[in-house]
Write a structure and sequence with these properties.
Helices cover about 0% and strands about 45% of the residues. Strands 7, 10, 13, 14, 15, 16, 17 and 20 form an eight-stranded antiparallel sheet that branches. Strands 2, 3, 4, 5, 6, 8 and 9 form a seven-stranded antiparallel sheet that branches.
Length: about 625
């Protein structure tokens, strides 16, 4: 007989799988204004070498907020930013200060400068940059709602003149950050870039998760402050979702000279940046209101010194922009027929207005630089103008389409500045909107102004520094909000402006569901979006995200052919080691804000066998007993 040393046998047998669905919205008109994960880059601020940090020790602040008590972690791809986890209190703002070593200064060079924020619960993220004469603010879009196609807002090439008589040129800029590995990006600039990509040509770059890529316009010394150097309308197309921050390195409008009284005029130039909405989040209807200042001088002898710039960028050919007449009688066409990527400006918009287009457009609002007085040129300095006794800077922000108005926003405005709240809303909703525990009708009263011929109103009011919030008491009420501010002094201008809220969800009566087949731990599945009304075709999937940080022992295979808005998403999930437990977590969002969290758990059943005897049967001669 043969003797066995076997004492225990572990057999991996039947598997146990479970799925749970949580947070599934069952109604039309859902709202999503936050996210749990963010990737973004830091644009280049072309400040002067002698500019100090305006507040605190570091020039950059992250403003984090949430509707619940939670925690968030901030880190950078290159590892130079020490990861830190911070607590966020409900309806409050947590401030995290950062150095500027992650600015994207080089054009068309891949950098590991992406900043990553992830939280236990949904949060909002704002960025505030503040030097003596330079800075801006922008609101960051969560990873779940980033898109694959963008158009940009920028400004022409500007300049200042140095003490030695040399010019320092300041171009427009675009900063891109990838959210996934192997992201293939194409960019079609409207003017030549620093590395020589001309209009009509396609620039290409491949980025991995967290890598950044800056695009700057090429410097043409003979074209200072010429619209022919404006990057606005540049189209960016990616194979996977990306973040895009766009604007300028430091410029001004109106076209003030680059030097005043022999000194470089940095103090009337500002950074002018905002985060761009992807095409999926743009709309066809917009409302703007005039920016208000406590003490701004308008010079009618200076070209285009009055009002604000409202810029429209077409995302499709044959786009036409209309505006409601000031008497409210009817819409009138204000633009020529625009091609994709072309832009149209209202250079001196002094009143609130309602706009409509036949295709989706990107809309930006630019505040203007200004000077208190225009002293006569001083002899002996090449007839250059003298310094004004007071001056201010401009800012830029993307306007929120009416289709994306929201019902809640928390925001912050800094100290020691003239800060303003800029709000647009349906007139009938005015009594339903609360600002810091007080309705806007009782708080701001006669400051609320209707826009004739439309159901909309607006207000622009000076507010105190600190943290604030807006909330609709009726969830059907919606608004668009912006915070902006300025510091105006003698050779010491500073300004910022940013949108404080957006609803990422489409208004659609739809539903989403998941079907899957499971075989020995391996999963093959499909996500479906369907319309609940026979006469609608608005259902679509926005994102299907495999949560690496919450999943274990599973390999994800996503749908490489998926495009945002598709009604079907195919996927497979492979078990890595059938002998170990596994969990796969999916977060699924429809374009209307319906949400599914899908958890698939795998537990191998271990069967222990303790052998007390073995029957070896009959021995075959001539074998012997061992």
């Amino acid at each position: 007989m043969k003797k066995s040393n076997l004492h225990n046998i572990l057999i991996f047998g039947l598997l146990f799988l479970s799925s749970t669905i949580t947070g599934l919205a069952q109604f039309s008109g859902s709202e999503i204004a936050e996210g749990k994960e963010y990737w973004f880059g830091m644009p280049h601020c072309m400040k002067s070498s002698d500019e100090y940090v305006r507040w605190g020790i570091y020039p950059i602040e992250l403003w984090l907020s949430s509707k619940v008590d939670t925690k968030a972690t901030i880190e950078a791809l290159d590892g130079n930013l020490q990861p830190q986890t911070v607590s966020i209190r409900k309806n409050d703002i947590t401030i995290v200060s950062l150095p500027d070593n992650l600015e994207n200064k080089e054009s068309e060079v891949v950098k590991n400068f992406g900043i990553h924020i992830f939280a236990d619960d949904p949060i909002t993220v704002g960025v505030f940059i503040a030097y003596k004469w330079s800075g801006e603010a922008y609101r960051v879009i969560p990873v779940e709602w980033l898109g694959k196609e963008y158009f940009t807002l920028n400004m022409y090439q500007d300049y200042v003149k140095m003490h030695a008589g040399d010019f320092e040129y300041k171009p427009g800029q675009i900063t891109i950050c990838a959210t996934e590995d192997n992201t293939q990006i194409q960019y079609l600039p409207t003017v030549e870039t620093e590395k020589g990509i001309k209009p009509g040509q396609i620039g290409r770059v491949n980025l991995n998760k967290g890598q950044t890529f800056s695009i700057k316009s090429k410097i043409f010394p003979a074209l200072n402050q010429d619209w022919a150097t404006d990057l606005s309308g540049t189209q960016i197309i990616a194979s996977k979702p990306i973040a895009v921050i766009s604007g300028h390195t430091k410029g001004c409008f109106p076209k003030y000279t680059g030097t005043m009284y022999g000194l470089k005029a940095d103090f009337v130039r500002n950074m002018l940046v905002d985060m761009m909405w992807p095409v999926e989040l743009l709309g066809k209807k917009y409302v703007s209101a005039p920016l208000k200042y406590l003490d701004r001088t308008v010079h009618y002898l200076v070209a285009d010194d009055i009002g604000d710039i409202i810029r429209f960028v077409a995302t499709k050919d044959n786009t036409i922009i209309y505006q409601m007449r000031q008497d409210g009688s009817s819409l009138m066409q204000i633009s020529p027929v625009l091609k994709k990527g072309q832009w149209f400006d209202i250079l001196n918009q002094e009143v609130a207005a309602y706009y409509k287009s036949n295709n989706k457009v990107l809309v930006g609002q630019y505040g203007k630089s200004w000077v208190l007085n225009l002293p006569n040129p001083k002899p002996g300095l090449n007839e250059e103008p003298q310094n004004p006794s007071r001056n201010g800077q401009g800012m830029m922000f993307a306007i929120t389409p009416i289709e994306r108005w929201c019902s809640f926003a928390s925001f912050r405005v800094p100290a020691a500045m003239d800060n303003f709240l800029y709000l647009t809303f349906r007139t009938e909703d005015a009594s339903k909107i609360v600002y810091d525990n007080q309705s806007i009708t009782s708080r701001f009263g006669t400051a609320i102004k209707p826009i004739l011929g439309t159901p909309y109103s607006y207000l622009v009011q000076n507010i105190a520094s600190g943290n604030h919030y807006l909330e609709a008491t009726d969830k059907s009420a919606r608004f668009a909000g912006y915070a902006y501010g300025n510091w105006d002094a003698y050779k010491d201008g500073f300004a910022y402006g940013y949108p404080i809220g957006i609803n990422y969800a489409d208004d659609c009566n739809d539903s989403i569901f998941v079907v899957d087949n499971i075989d020995c731990g391996d999963i093959v599945g499909k996500v479906k979006a369907i319309d609940l009304q026979e006469d609608t075709t608005c259902a679509g999937i926005f994102s299907v995200i495999f949560r690496d940080s919450e999943s274990a022992n599973y390999h994800w295979n996503g749908d490489t052919d998926f495009k945002i808005g598709d009604t079907t998403y195919n996927f497979s999930i492979d078990i890595k080691n059938p002998g170990d437990s596994a969990i796969a977590v999916l977060n699924i969002l429809s374009k209307s804000g319906k949400f599914i969290r899908r958890e698939i758990k795998y537990v191998p059943e271990k069967i222990g066998v303790d052998i007390t005897g073995i029957d070896y049967g009959l021995m075959i001669p001539p074998q012997t007993v061992c």
